[in-house]
Amino acid sequence: MPRGVIKWFDSVRGYGFVVTDGGSQELYLSWNAMVQSGLSHVEDGQHVDVTIGPRADGKDAVASLSLCSPE
């Protein structure tokens, strides 16, 4: 499970992005992925573990995530 950081999330628009450690990927984060993960709020800069899955357009996105402590 890759680790990353919330780059930004706009709760009004219902989406944002997670950057994986090392900056190798920038992943789309939808409100639906957060809700399915049991989360109602994330903060910019917060560390997360993510599961990656495909979006409808075939690009990678966050399928699920969990909060973690920075190492």
Write the layout of secondary structure elements.
Blueprint: E1 3-10, E2 15-20, E3 26-30, H1 31-36, E4 47-54, E5 60-67
Antiparallel strand pairs: 1-2, 1-4, 2-3, 4-5
Description:
A hairpin with a 5-residue loop joins strand 4 and strand 5 (60-67). With 71 residues, the protein is mainly beta. Strands 3-2-1-4-5 form a five-stranded antiparallel beta sheet. The mean pLDDT is 92. The longest helix has 6 residues, at 31-36. It has one helix and five strands, in the order E-E-E-H-E-E. 8% of the residues lie in helices and 49% in strands. The chain has one helix at residues 31-36; strands at residues 3-10, 15-20, 26-30, 47-54, 60-67.
N-C termini distance: 15 Å
H and E string: EEEHEE
Extract low-pLDDT stretches: none
Calculate the mean pLDDT score and round it: 92
The largest beta-sheet arranges its strands as: 3-2-1-4-5
Rounded to an integer, what's the Rg over CA atoms?
11 Å
What's the overall geometry? globular
From the helix content, strand content and strand pairing, which structural class follows? mainly beta
**So how many helices?**
1
Strand content: over 45%
As an assembly, this protein is: single chain
- Largest sheet, described in full? 5 strands, antiparallel
* Strand count: 5
